[in-house]
Specification:
Homodimer. Its EC number is 6.3.5.2. This is GMP synthase [glutamine-hydrolyzing]. There is one protein chain. The protein is α/β, with parallel strands linked by helices. It folds into 2 domains: 195 residues, HUPs (Rossmann fold, 3-Layer(aba) Sandwich); 103 residues, GMP Synthetase, Chain A, domain 3 (2-Layer Sandwich), CATH 3.30.300. Helices cover 41% and strands 21% of the residues. It has a 6-stranded mixed β-sheet, sandwiched between helices. α1 packs across α7 and α2 packs across α7. The radius of gyration is 21 Å and the shape is globular. Bound molecules: xanthosine-5'-monophosphate. Xanthosine-5'-monophosphate binds next to loops.
Amino acid sequence: DWTTTNVVEESIAAIREQVGSKRAVCGLSGGVDSAVAAALVQRAIGSQLTCVYVDHGLMRKGESEQVEKDFVAATGVQLKVVDAEEQFLEALAGVSDPEQKRKIIGREFIRVFEQAAAEIVAEAGEHGESVEFLVQGTLYPDVVESGGGTGTANIKSHHNVGGLPEDLEFQLVEPLRRLFKDEVRMVGAELGLPDEIVHRQPFPGPGLGIRIVGEVTKERLDLLREADAIARQELTAAGLDRDIWQCPVVLLADVRSVGVQGDGRTYGHPIVLRPVSSEDAMTADWSRLPYDVLARISTRITNEVADVNRVVLDVTSKPPGTIEWE
Ligand code: XMP
């Protein structure tokens, strides 16, 4: 019978059986699925697991710390953090096209992750061990969507890390393959993960990179991070986190409008709030947030974020709009 405790115990037994005394790597994205998968595998095989977190500099305020401190504190997992902000920003320099940005971020991510995995493989090899498994947070709906296949992942090494095989082949460990999202959250809670991780709202892999309409720069990211943190604080304070699906905050970096602030005229950028309600992100409606909450967010963002002199609300459903702006 289905209880969270049974699911955890059975998964742990299955992971131990599959991995034996070999080693495994797992990429953490900051999202619920990879966090719960990693926590389960950590429970099962302990220090035979190493997690990799690629900090691409496109995360929201406090999110990298959440992985680096809170997740590690809750699980005791061995974590390799790669600070790749400069690499991502360089690759994104001068690029405004949304699809280009997505391609570049995806490509750099794979490069950085592969390099890190290759280093872990090399270090394990020095100790006479082998890394043969890659942990992934695949859920049941993903399995159904992709036709149910399972097996191996082939990681091509683009980098000449001394003495490594050209292609690293991993077998997949997918402990969440039979679970739905709400069950994954229950398992995460059972494993002692913090609420902020277990109940995290969806956030796109390319991060804030696709929430800046225009070129992505460090200054613009810092500005958006501040505005986004304010919106999240106020939504949380108002108890609205579980009423909305997510609330992208978007910087229109290529748009300026005239304002008046303090003693003078300003010529700043607009911030867009995009609160949506949804069941599965395939369709969505714009959330009717209370006016007083919207007012607080607007006042704080225009007061506290330099260069932003206007806050606008997106009142488009999906379709025709997508949830993200890019
Ligand atoms: P759209 O904008 O297509 O978004 O309506 C639907 C849902 O997917 C999220 N999203 C992504 N998630 N990688 C992700 O992991 C991505 O590249 C990506 N793009 C959009 C979005 O936040 C929303 O929840």
